[in-house]
Design brief:
The structure is a single chain. The chain is built from eleven helices and eight strands. It is α/β, with parallel strands linked by helices. Helix 2 links the parallel strand 2 (35-38) and strand 3. Helix 4 packs parallel to helix 5 and helix 7 runs parallel beside helix 10.
Length: 277
């Protein structure tokens, strides 16, 4: 792969609201978005599936969810409302992540969605038990690509603090990659977008592209339209989604991609092009 730079631009939360769904499709059709992660238990799931069928060039993964939304493994029940409640439920054995993930992937399979990659809402697979469950169902469903949510360079953070945080991140990242390898899963070389969540605009996006390292980077984003449905939803990302959508559609961003010789790709292309990163 030499010094070539490749970028997957992946939108989270497909299926959360119809306004988010429309924004994701627009960012793909008219912007630089290459991929999206679909919530099998999202309120706008059926709407999202119809759009995926209409726009098959959008690469689709699973945005596996253990918080805030209805459970699919226990119909009628709701998942924990927050990350702190999830930690309590996991410690008390009140939630089986493997069963929930399996139910969500089966629903995607039932409606004909070919899942190219896995990630989790709120990055819950950083928890060892959740990661083990995710990797088990990945092997069961034959899904190889898994997000590594380790964003190494917080913008604006003092250099000394960034260097200090890099040490525990390095060891956590090494552990994470070893677990993926044990299950035959793979991930991109780099990940970006965690520190930009809720703040991504065209200027920051162009800067992120210019600073890409060689190899494959996944850039996480959250585009969409801020509708009344979203304003009532349990998420802090509301008006910022329209700012992110505008950034993905900005022609100057595509010009920066061309000038930097960065190639847009998606997860479905990775095995064919490079195999294991």
């Amino acid at each position: 792969m030499s010094q070539a730079r490749y970028l997957i631009v992946n939108a989270d939360d497909l299926g959360f609201t119809e306004g988010i769904n429309r924004g994701i499709i627009e960012a793909h059709e008219a912007g630089i978005l290459t991929s999206a992660s679909l919530m099998a238990n999202g309120p706008a799931f059926e709407h999202a599936v119809k759009l995926c069928q209409r726009y098959p060039s959008l690469d689709v993964g699973a945005h596996l969810t253990l918080v805030q939304l209805p459970s699919l493994s226990c119909p009628g029940a709701r998942l924990p409302a927050s990350l702190s409640e999830l930690l309590v439920a996991l410690s008390k054995g009140q939630l089986d992540p493997r069963a929930e993930f399996r139910a969500q992937l089966r629903r995607l399979e039932t409606v004909g969605i070919k899942v190219s990659h896995l990630d989790t809402h709120k990055h819950t697979h950083l928890h060892p038990r959740v990661l083990a469950s995710l990797l088990e169902v990945a092997a069961e469903f034959g899904i190889r690509w898994v997000r590594q949510p380790f964003d190494w360079e917080p913008p604006g953070m003092p250099r000394w603090l960034a260097s200090f945080l890099r040490v525990p991140l390095f060891f956590s990242h090494a552990w994470f990659r070893r677990k993926l390898q044990q299950y035959g899963c793979a991930t991109t070389h780099h990940f970006s977008g965690f520190w930009l969540t809720g703040k991504l605009d065209a200027h920051k996006l162009k800067r992120a592209i210019e600073n890409l390292r060689s190899g494959v980077t996944e850039l996480m984003c959250h585009p969409g339209y801020c509708t009344a449905e979203l304003l009532k939803a349990p998420t802090r990302l509301k008006q910022s989604r329209e700012q992110e959508l505008a950034a993905l559609l900005d022609p100057s961003v595509r010009a920066v991609l061309a000038a930097a010789n960065v190639r847009l790709v998606n997860f479905s292309q990775l095995d064919q092009l490079w195999g294991q990163p």
